[in-house]
Amino acid sequence: MRQLASRTSVSTREIQIIVSNIQQGAQRVFSQMSDGVAATDAAVVQAQDAGAAIHSLLRGYQTIKDRTLDIKTASVEQSKTVSGAVTHAGRVDELARTGQELSLEALHTSRAVMALAEDLGKKLKVFSSL
């Protein structure tokens, strides 16, 4: 009888230790998960801020694109008007063409940057949905 009581007591202590270890492990897991949730929330906020900044950049690039097209149109019109002038016609024409080329180059650059910004925005949306 004493042996049975002794074994029961030892088993009970072992079970208490196991339960305590399980509780401590569960508490650590909960704490780590809570930290992970907080870190994820912070990352989502940062991604949203980055998305807003990208949208602002896209609006700026659109404005640049519009102004570049205006410059190109003005350059073409200026080139047509100046071509009829006799004095300094060659120099003005050269300047208009250079302006047009630079405008086209700026337009292409603006489009490339806009495409990159849109791509980044899509990638950030995917990230923030996680």
Describe it.
- This protein has 130 residues and is mainly α.
- It has one domain (2-128): Methyl-accepting chemotaxis protein (Helix Hairpins, Orthogonal Bundle).
- It is 94% helix and 0% strand.
- The longest helix has 82 residues, at 2-83.
- The two termini are 60 Å apart.
- The model has no long low-confidence stretch (mean pLDDT 82).
Please give a quick description of this structure.
Helix content is 94%, strand content 0%. The protein is an all-alpha fold.
Which labels suit this protein?
single chain; 130 residues; mainly alpha; Helix Hairpins; 2 helices; 0% strand; rod-shaped
- Which residues sit in consecutive blocks of at least 5 with pLDDT less than 50? none
Q: Describe the main β-sheet briefly.
A: none
Could you say which overall geometry the principal axes of the C-alpha atoms support? Answer: rod-shaped
Question: What portion of residues belong to β-strands?
Answer: under 5%
CATH architecture: Orthogonal Bundle
Q: What do we call the CATH homologous superfamily? A: Methyl-accepting chemotaxis protein
State the helicity in percent bands.
Answer: over 70%
The counted number of beta strands is 0
How many structural domains? 1
